[in-house]
Specification:
Length: about 1300
C-alpha cells in the first residue's frame, strides 16, 4: 500500500488509538462519519460465504466495525483494506470479500455511489489499481460490477470521472488479456463490454485506443462466434457502435464484414430479441455513416432489404410498441442515402413512394412523429436535385461597370466564359471519392472541444483605434462647401423676429393623397414655415464651390479656442424653448377632414391633413370594368410631358365602399389619428411622388409606379401579433413538394411571368393570377404555375451578382376571394429566417386603400422556410458544392375579387419616397428656428443623387457669441440603408428625421445640442433596382469602408471623406450610427466596438484585465434600453471581429477615432420583450425607435457634459452587465450572405436558421421535425450562439 495515501491514512485511523478518527471526504470538502474509535479491539467477523460458496480462511478475517460506524466510514475502511491487500497476491480471498462488500454497499445506496465518485475521493483509483493488478477472476468481476453500478446511475459525469482516472485504457487492456484465454469467461466479457460501451463516448481518444489495443477484432469475433448468445452479443454490439463513431474504425470494421454481420441479426417483424434488434440497427446506422461502408451496403442490395424490412414492421406493428426499431431502420436508410449511390438505389427501389405512403399513414398518431420526420428528411435528401428554371443565375438586368475589379466575385462573374452554364447542378460530381482511407489523419483532439472563434480580433495593437487621415488635407478640402455651418456668419438671415409666420401652401391645384405618419414623441406641429426665406442652394461636392468663404481649415484652430468660453452658453441654450409654433390653421384642418383619391378642382386650396376623421366616404366615380379605372387613368401618359410614368392597371368590378356607420372602426381610426398625425403636415404627396419618380434613374428604366408607393402607407389601427405556427406545417409542405415527383401528372408547370423573355405574353385566362414587379424596388423574376392555385416564384439576383435573393416586392391581380393560394419563393439563400419564428410577409390591397385603409398588413398562413431540392451551382456558391436553395412558402386568401395586391418582404421604402419626404420636410420647416440643408453628397453609378442632410438649430442671433456657440456644437453623424433589403432602417431614419424637424421643446433642445449630418440612403441604386444586398457594383457596400473605390463605391468614398474631413479639422463626431435591419433576431439592438470586451470574449481574462478603456461606448445603448420599448440591451454586442474590419462601424471607430461608433439593428419580425412583446413590428414602432434614438442623444449630452450631473454608476456597470455569450463565428466567404449581424437561433420548438450576417451552412441531417421538440426545421445547431 502506498504510504501517505488517503486510503492508507483512513485504514490506519480505523485501527489506531482511541483518539483516532475515521473519516471520508465528501463532495463539499468536509469530513463525514467522524467518530472516536473504541479502545477495545472489536470482535472478529464470522467468515462469510463467497459467491463460489467457499468460506474465508481464519487468517483473512477482518475486524468488525462497530454498528455505530456509518456506511461512509465502512466504505473508507473497505477501500483502505483493499488498497493494502491489492499488492499481495496471497490475499485474493480477502480481496474477493472486500470487493463483494463494497459492491453490496454501492448497489444499495446512491449516496455511496455519489461519494465514491466525488471530487477528492480516491475510491475509483483504488478500484482501478486493484483491477489492474489482481489475477483473481471473482475479484475482477466484483470490481467490474461496482464500476457498472457507479456509471449506470450517474449519467455522463461519472463516466467522464472514470475516463479521467484512466479507466478506459485499463479496461481495454483487461479485454486484451481476457481474450488471450483459450475459452474467455463469458461473464467477464459481458461486464467489460458493458462498461466500455458506457464510458467510450466520454473518451475523445477511445477510438484510437481501441484500435491500437486490437479491441476491434476481439469484439467483432465475439459477435461472429456467439450469434445465438444474445446476452453476450448485446453489449458487444453496443461497443461496436461506439467504435464506429471513429471513421477509421468504421472503415476497418466494414472491411472485416461487420455490415454483412448486422444483416444477419436484423430481419422482418418478430416479437423476439427486440433489444438485440434495436442495438443492431443503431450499430448499422453508425457504420453506414462511412461512405465506404455505405457503398458496400448498396452494392449488396441492402437498400432494398431495409425498405422491405421497414414495410414489414410498419404493417405488423399495429400497436406501435416497436417504434424504436422502425426508427432504427429509417436511421440506417438515412445514413446510406448520404451518398449519391445510395440515393439512386433508394429511388430505384421505389423508396420515395414507400416512405411517402407509410409516413402519411403515420400522421394520425402523434407519437409516430419521429418516423414521419425522418421519412420526410430522407425523401427530401433523395428528391432529385433540380436546376433553377432560369437561363442564368445572373441578374436579368445588366449594368456595365466603369471599372472592373481585379479580384473578388464580381471579377469572377465578368471572367466567366459565355458558354458556361452557371445554373447546372454540380453538387454530386465528387460525391463518391473515398476520403476515409486507413491512413486518415486523426482529428479526434478537435472533436468535442469548445468551439474557438477565430474571427475575433486578438491583436490588441490592431484593436486600438489609430486615426489615419487616409487622404491629404488638400484632397479633403473638396468637402468644405458641405460644412457651411462652420463658416457662415448668418448676416443674410433674419434671426431677430421670433413671431410665427403665416402658413403658405405651395404646389399645384390638384390635391395630394394625404397619408399621415409620425412617431409618438413629437409634441407640436411643424407646419409653419416662411415663404421667401430661402436657404443656400444645394451644391455637389464635385461641382462648383459656390460663394467663396474663408477656409474652415484655416479657421479651425481659432474656433476651437472658443469651446470653453461658449460651453456654458451652449448648455444654457439647451433649456430654452421656442413657443412660437402652435399648429395648423384650424380652418385648413376642417377643410381637409377626409382622405381623397379624386381630383380636387383647381380652385380648391390644397393642403395637409393632420389626421383622418370619421367620414371615410370617397367621392369616387365607380364603374364596372376590366381595364384601368377612370379615376386613376389620369395618372398615366396624359399628365406628364417627356418621360412617361404610369400607375399599374387597377382592375375591379366595383370598388367596395365601406359603410360609414362602422362606428367601431371609425373610433379606432380616430384614436390612431391622434397618435400618428400629431406633428403637422404629413410627408406623403402623390403628385410630388410621381414628379420625383420621373427623375429617378433605374437600370430597367421603370415606367410604372406601384400603388402602395403612390397611395402611401399609414400604420394600421390594430396590433399584429407574432404568428403561432401550427404544428407540422413544414412537413405538410414538404410532403406536397414530394407529391410533385410521385404524381407528376398533377403538375401544370406553366410560366405566367418571365423577365428573361422580352416577348413573353401574360396569359389571359381568368383563373390564372397575374404578376408584375416592373416598378421601383420591385423584385420578381419568374413565376411558374405548378398546381391550379400554387405558384413557384423566383427572385432576381442583385445586379452584377449571381446571388443575394431575399428581398421581394411584387404585384398580384386577377384573384378570386375564398380561394387559398400558395406562393413558394424557391431561390432564397439564407439558411434560416424569422418566417420560421412567427414573421409574416406584408400585403397591400388597393381596394382596401380605396376604402380608406391604405396600409400594409401582415398576412399569410402555413408559413415556413426550409431547404428545397433546387441546387445552387458551384458558380453561384463560390466554388462550394452541394448547396441548396431555400423556400419561403405562405398561403393567402384574398378578401376581394379582382383586387390588385402587393406583397413585400418588409415595408417598402423607395428612393423616390425618401426624396419626397426630404422635399416635404424642407418646404415645411421654419427657417427661423431650424437650420436645414439638403445637399448632394455625390452621384451614384447610375446617375442618381445621394442626399446629404444637415439639421441643427439656428443661432439665436448673428452676434459673435451666438455664432460661436452654433459652430461649436458637437457633430452626430447618421447613415442608413446601405443594404437595400433592410427597408426597416429607412423607417427608423424617417422617425429620426421627423423628430429632428419637429417643433417640440425636446427636439429644439436637441438641435441646440448637436449638428446632425445625415446620409439617409447610402445605396440609392440598390434600393431603386430591387437589390437585396449590393449596389450596382455587385458588392456589399458595407464591406468597402476600408478602401472604397471612388468609381465603384462613390457613396461610401464620400461619406468616409466627410468623416475624414471632420477628423482633420478636429471636429470628430460624438456619435456615429449606421441604421440596419436584422432578419434573424428580434427587437432593436446595437453593435459597438470595445477592446476590452473583444479580448474578454477570447477567454484571455488576464489580457482583458490589463486593458484600460473608457466604457462610454455603453452609455447610449444603456439609455436606449431604458427609454425605447423595442430596444434590448442583452442583444447588444461590442466585440470586434476580423470579418467586420471593413464595415462602417469598425472603420469609423478604428480609423476615424469615434469611440461611440455603432450599428443599430432593427428586427424585421417583432419583439420578445418589453412593451411590444409578442407583436410584429410595424412602421409606427420603427419610427418611434428613430425618435427615441434622438431622445437618447439628448440624454447622452446631459450625461456627458462636464457641467452637468455626473454619470450614474449603474448606467455604466460594465462588469456586471457584460453580455454573456460564447463567440462562435466562422469567417464568411465573399460568396456567402455575410452580413452585419451574427447567426441567431431562438429558443423555440423548431429551428431552421440566418445573421443577417453569417450564412454558415449546418449539417443537412438537422432539418426534420422531431417529436421531443415541437418542430425542427432545416439546418441549424441550436447549441451554438454566434456573435456578430
Amino acid at each position: 500500500m502506498r504510504e501517505g495515501s488517503p486510503a492508507a491514512a483512513a485504514a490506519a485511523a480505523a485501527s489506531a488509538s482511541p483518539a483516532s478518527r475515521v473519516s471520508m471526504k465528501t463532495p463539499g470538502g468536509g469530513r463525514r462519519g467522524t467518530r472516536r474509535a473504541s479502545s477495545e479491539q472489536p470482535p472478529a467477523l464470522p467468515a462469510p460465504s463467497q459467491p463460489g460458496g467457499a468460506a474465508l480462511p481464519p487468517r483473512c478475517q477482518l475486524p468488525l466495525l462497530s454498528p455505530r460506524l456509518t456506511n461512509n466510514s465502512r466504505v473508507v475502511g473497505l477501500l483502505a483494506q483493499l488498497e493494502k491487500i491489492s499488492t499481495e497476491p496471497t490475499e485474493s480471498d480477502t480481496a474477493r470479500y472486500v470487493t463483494s462488500k463494497i459492491l453490496h454497499l454501492a448497489q444499495s445506496q446512491e449516496k455511496i455511489r455519489r461519494e465514491m465518485t466525488a471530487k477528492g475521493s480516491t475510491g475509483m483509483e483504488v478500484l482501478l489499481s486493484t483491477l489492474e493488478s489482481t489475477k483473481d477472476l471473482q475479484t475482477t468481476l466484483n470490481i467490474l460490477s461496482i464500476l457498472v453500478e457507479l456509471v449506470s446511475a450517474g449519467g455522463g459525469r461519472r463516466a467522464s470521472f472514470l475516463v479521467a482516472k484512466g479507466g478506459s485504457q485499463i479496461l481495454l487492456q483487461l479485454l486484451m488479456n481476457a481474450s488471450k484465454e483459450s475459452s474467455p469467461n463469458e461473464e467477464l466479457m459481458v461486464q467489460i463490454h458493458s462498461i466500455l460501451a458506457k464510458i467510450g463516448p466520454k473518451d475523445k481518444k477511445f477510438g484510437v485506443k481501441a484500435r491500437i489495443n486490437g479491441a476491434l477484432n476481439i469484439t467483432l469475433n465475439l459477435v461472429k462466434q456467439n450469434l445465438q448468445n444474445h446476452r453476450l452479443v448485446l453489449p458487444c454490439l453496443q461497443l461496436l457502435r461506439v467504435y464506429s463513431a471513429n471513421s477509421v474504425n468504421s472503415v476497418s470494421l466494414g472491411k472485416n464484414g461487420v455490415v454483412e454481420l448486422m444483416f444477419k441479426i436484423i430481419g422482418p417483424f418478430s416479437k423476439k430479441n427486440l433489444s438485440l434488434m434495436k442495438v443492431a440497427l443503431d450499430t448499422l446506422a453508425a457504420l453506414l455513416k462511412s461512405k465506404t461502408n455505405a457503398r458496400r451496403a448498396v452494392d449488396r442490395g441492402c437498400v432494398q432489404v431495409l425498405l422491405t424490412i421497414y414495410v414489414d414492421w410498419h404493417r405488423h406493428d399495429n400497436r406501435h410498441r416497436n417504434m424504436l426499431i422502425r426508427k432504427g431502420i429509417l436511421q440506417s436508410l438515412k445514413s446510406v442515402t448520404n451518398i449519391k449511390l445510395g440515393r439512386k438505389a433508394f429511388i430505384d427501389a421505389n423508396g420515395m413512394k414507400i416512405l411517402y405512403t407509410t409516413s402519411q399513414e403515420c400522421l394520425a398518431v402523434r407519437t409516430l412523429d419521429p418516423l414521419v420526420n425522418i421519412s420526410s428528411l430522407i425523401m427530401r435528401k433523395c428528391f432529385p436535385k433540380n436546376r433553377l428554371p432560369l437561363p442564368t443565375i445572373k441578374s436579368s438586368f445588366n449594368f456595365q461597370l466603369p471599372v472592373i475589379p481585379m479580384s473578388g466575385p464580381v471579377a469572377q462573374l465578368y471572367s466567366l466564359p459565355p458558354e458556361v452554364d452557371d445554373v447546372v447542378d454540380e453538387s454530386d460530381d465528387n460525391d463518391d471519392i473515398d476520403l476515409e482511407a486507413e491512413n486518415e489523419t486523426e482529428n479526434e483532439d478537435d472533436i468535442d472541444q469548445n468551439f474557438k472563434n477565430d474571427d475575433i480580433e486578438t491583436d490588441i495593437n490592431k484593436l486600438k483605434p489609430q486615426q489615419e487621415p487616409g487622404r491629404t488635407i488638400e484632397d479633403l478640402k473638396m468637402y468644405e462647401h458641405l460644412f457651411p455651418e462652420l463658416v457662415d456668419d448668418f448676416q443674410d438671415y433674419d434671426l431677430i423676429s421670433k413671431e410665427p409666420k403665416p402658413l403658405v401652401f405651395e404646389g399645384k391645384g390638384r390635391g395630394p393623397i394625404v397619408v399621415p405618419t409620425a412617431g409618438e414623441e413629437a409634441a407640436g406641429n411643424s407646419g409653419n414655415f416662411r415663404k421667401g426665406v430661402v436657404m443656400k442652394e444645394n451644391v455637389s461636392p464635385l461641382g462648383d464651390e459656390g460663394d467663396k468663404k474663408p477656409s474652415f481649415m484655416d479657421l479651425a484652430k481659432e474656433d476651437i479656442k472658443d469651446n470653453d468660453r461658449t460651453l456654458q452658453q451652449q448648455l444654457g441654450d439647451q433649456n430654452r424653448t421656442i413657443s412660437s409654433v402652435h399648429g395648423l390653421n384650424n380652418d385648413i384642418v376642417k377643410a381637409l377632414d377626409r382622405i381623397t383619391l379624386q381630383n380636387i378642382p383647381s380652385q380648391t386650396a390644397p393642403g395637409f391633413t393632420a389626421g383622418m376623421k370619421k367620414d371615410y366616404s370617397l367621392p369616387l366615380t365607380v364603374v364596372t370594368c376590366s381595364k384601368a379605372c377612370p379615376h386613376v387613368a389620369a395618372c398615366g401618359n396624359v399628365l406628364f410631358e417627356g418621360r412617361t410614368v404610369q400607375l399599374g392597371k387597377l382592375c375591379c368590378t366595383g370598388v367596395e365602399i365601406e359603410d360609414d356607420e362602422d362606428t367601431e372602426f371609425a373610433s379606432s381610426m380616430e384614436q390612431v389619428s391622434v397618435e400618428v398625425a400629431d406633428d403637422g403636415p404629413t410627408l406623403h404627396d402623390s403628385d410630388l411622388y410621381i414628379e420625383i419618380v420621373k427623375n429617378t434613374k433605374s437600370v430597367p428604366e421603370y415606367s410604372e409606379v406601384a400603388y402602395p408607393d403612390y397611395f402611401g402607407h399609414i400604420p394600421p389601427p390594430f396590433k399584429e401579433p407574432i404568428l403561432e405556427r401550427p404544428y407540422g406545417v413544414q412537413r405538410t409542405k414538404i410532403a406536397q413538394d414530394i407529391e410533385r415527383l410521385i404524381h407528376q401528372s398533377d403538375i401544370i408547370d406553366r410560366v405566367v411571368y418571365d423577365l428573361d423573355n422580352p416577348n413573353f405574353i401574360v396569359p389571359e385566362e381568368v383563373d390564372i393570377l397575374k404578376f408584375n414587379s416592373k416598378f421601383e424596388s420591385g423584385n420578381l423574376r419568374k413565376v411558374i404555375q405548378m398546381r391550379k392555385n400554387e405558384y413557384d416564384l423566383i427572385l432576381n439576383s442583385d445586379i452584377n451578382s449571381n446571388h443575394y435573393h431575399q428581398w421581394f416586392y411584387f404585384e398580384v391581380s386577377g384573384m378570386r376571394p375564398g380561394v387559398a393560394y400558395r406562393f413558394n419563393i424557391i431561390n432564397c439563400e439564407k439558411s434560416n429566417s424569422q418566417f420560421n419564428y412567427g414573421m409574416q410577409p406584408l400585403m397591400y390591397s388597393v381596394q382596401e386603400a380605396l376604402n380608406a385603409r391604405p396600409w400594409w398588413t401582415r398576412v399569410g398562413t402555413d408559413i415556413c422556410y426550409y431547404k428545397n431540392h433546387f441546387s445552387r451551382s458551384s458558380v453561384a456558391a463560390g466554388g462550394q458544392k452541394g448547396k441548396s436553395y431555400y423556400t419561403i412558402t405562405f398561403t393567402i386568401n384574398f378578401p376581394h375579387k379582382d383586387d390588385v395586391c402587393y406583397f413585400a418582404y418588409h415595408y417598402p421604402y423607395t428612393y423616390s419616397t425618401l426624396q419626397m419626404h426630404l422635399q416635404k420636410l424642407e418646404s415645411a420647416h421654419n427657417p427661423q428656428q431650424i437650420y436645414f440643408r439638403r445637399d448632394v453628397l455625390c452621384e451614384t453609378l447610375s446617375g442618381n443623387s445621394c442626399p446629404l442632410v444637415t439639421i441643427t438649430a439656428m443661432p439665436e442671433s448673428n452676434y459673435y457669441e451666438h455664432i460661436c456657440q452654433f459652430r461649436n456644437r458637437p457633430y452626430v453623424f447618421l447613415s442608413a440603408r446601405v443594404h437595400p433589403g433592410e427597408t426597416n432602417a429607412s423607417w427608423v431614419m424617417k422617425g429620426t428625421l421627423e423628430y429632428l424637424m419637429s417643433n417640440s421643446p425636446t427636439a429644439q433642445s436637441l438641435r441646440e445640442c448637436y449638428i446632425f449630418k445625415i446620409v439617409p440612403m447610402l445605396n440609392p441604386d440598390g434600393v431603386i433596382n430591387g437589390n437585396h444586398r449590393c449596389s450596382l457594383s455587385g458588392e456589399d457596400l458595407n464591406r468597402q469602408w476600408q478602401s472604397p473605390n471612388p468609381d465603384l463605391h462613390p457613396t461610401i468614398y464620400h461619406a468616409k471623406g466627410l468623416l475624414q474631413y471632420l477628423a482633420a479639422v478636429k471636429r470628430l463626431p460624438l456619435v456615429y450610427c449606421d441604421y440596419h435591419g436584422h432578419s434573424r433576431k428580434k427587437n432593436v439592438f446595437m453593435y459597438g466596438c470595445s477592446i476590452k470586451e473583444t479580448v474578454w470574449h477570447t477567454n484571455n481574462n488576464a489580457s482583458s484585465c490589463d486593458v484600460v478603456e473608457d466604457v462610454g461606448y455603453r452609455t447610449l445603448p444603456k439609455i436606449l434600453s431604458h427609454i425605447a420599448p423595442a430596444f434590448c440591451m442583452s442583444s447588444c454586442s461590442f466585440v470586434v471581429e476580423k470579418s467586420k474590419e471593413s464595415t462602417a462601424r469598425v472603420v469609423v471607430w478604428r480609423e476615424i477615432g469615434v469611440q461611440r461608433s455603432y450599428t443599430m439593428e432593427s428586427t424585421l419580425c417583432g419583439c420578445d420583450q418589453g412593451k411590444y412583446k409578442g407583436l410584429q413590428i410595424g412602421t409606427r414602432e420603427l419610427e418611434e425607435m428613430g425618435a427615441k434614438f434622438c431622445l437618447g442623444l439628448l440624454r447622452l449630452k446631459r450625461l456627458t457634459s462636464p457641467l452637468e450631473y455626473s454619470l450614474p454608476s449603474s448606467l455604466l456597470d460594465f462588469e456586471n452587465d457584460l453580455i454573456e455569450s460564447s463567440c462562435k463565428v466562422t469567417s464568411p466567404t465573399t460568396y456567402v450572405l455575410d452580413e452585419d449581424e451574427p447567426r441567431f437561433l431562438e429558443e423555440v420548438d423548431y429551428s431552421a436558421e440566418s445573421n443577417d450576417e453569417l450564412d454558415i451552412e449546418l449539417a443537412e441531417n438537422a432539418d426534420y421535425e422531431t417529436s421531443t421538440q415541437e418542430e425542427v426545421l432545416s439546418d441549424s445547431d441550436s447549441s451554438r450562439t454566434f456573435l456578430p
